[in-house]
Design goal:
Elements: E1 4-5, H1 12-32, H2 35-43, H3 47-74, E2 81-82, E3 93-99, H4 106-114, E4 123-130, H5 136-146, E5 151-156, H6 162-172, E6 177-181, E7 185-187, H7 191-195, H8 197-201, E8 205-214, H9 221-243, E9 254-258, H10 259-270, E10 273-274, E11 277-278, H11 283-293, E12 297-308, H12 314-342, H13 349-378, H14 383-397, H15 399-405, H16 409-424, H17 428-434
Parallel strand pairs: 3-4, 3-6, 4-5, 8-12
Antiparallel strand pairs: 1-2, 6-9, 7-12, 8-9, 10-11
Length: 444
Amino acid sequence: MKNIKRVRPRHREKGLIFGLISLILVAVTAHELEIIPFWVGFIGSSSLIKIISYPFLACLIILFLGLGFRVSLWLKYRPETLRTVELLDFPSVSVVMPAYNEEKLLSRAVEAVLQSDYPGDKLELICINDGSTDKTLAVLESLRQRDPARIKVISFQRNLGKKEALFKGIKEARGQIIITTDADSQLQRRAIKNLILPLISDERVGAVAGKVSVLNENKNLITRMLSIRFALSFDFGRAYQSVYGGVLCCPGALSAFRRKSLLKILPGWRKQKFLKASCQHGEDRSLTSLILKKGYLVKYQSNAVVNTRVPEKVSEANKMYLRWTRSAVRESWFFARFIFLRGRRKYYVLPAIDFFFQSMLHPLHLTGLALLTCSIFIRPDFFFNQLIFLIVLSLALNLNNYRVQKNFKWLYYGALQGLFAFFFQWWIVPYSIITVRDQNWLTK
């Protein structure tokens, strides 16, 4: 612990100032467009609308309180940083990389790991060919011949799935810390060293999530919007969760686990079932849930970055969200069971509060969209006022992204992403709930 130096929060007041500016911008826009008088009249126009609207407004107020709760935590977040590298005795690390039909990107992924700023004699890479039908195995064998001391190749005769590939790789790993990554992802040079710092500094930490950035961000509008969504998910979502040690999902693209914490949960994770169906996707989230259930803390390191490719078409992006959301539905059920029914530890309190707020999000989304649609039919002349207000609201919510990233793209692409999700992706959660037992990978 003495070799790790925590960075004191800086410029926290700037975040508060930008938050205040956002509130003022939204309030002024609402006043000028007469949004509040319109909605007061709309709610009072029908008893049915009243019955729906009053609980909705009450929940909306609670949701904003929840947002304030999250922001207050987010303002406290800072990643662990290394100040005295020469004084640290770095632990041995095993990087586990499953690969299925990744011949085009595999070489760069492997080279990025081997070129990491980490002691070479304490780093091993285990690559698992999951029954690929292209030249993935040939590429892996060629790479292994270049560095046989550090690269180990495991090959399946047929495709057994990412979970089984990870299981086999983890069982073969010899490192004190086990890192998982994907074959279509490229680690930044200091990613491994930064990622493991919370595991070194605090014995209570069982896992650490890295930051996933978009490799093909500039390809088109879809990839740019996904880049914004990833940034919000990691630099806001996982950041505030890290403050209380309750990060809900360590991404498959880059995560680190304490060996002893991982081996305790591995058998149960491999055999996990939900509604009598074997769980084949969402392996990263289920691993994290089991780590939390064992009483370990889970942290996030924003300075441990991996670049990964994302879908470039709306249909592919929706399939990705469906897969993620199905696993989120499943893991939310498991998480709720132990956090509320079996949780007796004091550090379950903040995760439980946050889980409550998260559970409200989608019901409010659907109700709000339904009320908005109804209001448009009743007062079509007011449609543009409401659209302008939603645009301003979306811009305001992304003001702080601009402050942090110093780039206007985080403002307008963030606004587009918010509007797109609100109007065109509302169906993903309901459909995921209905088809939660479907284990189809969808993108393979």
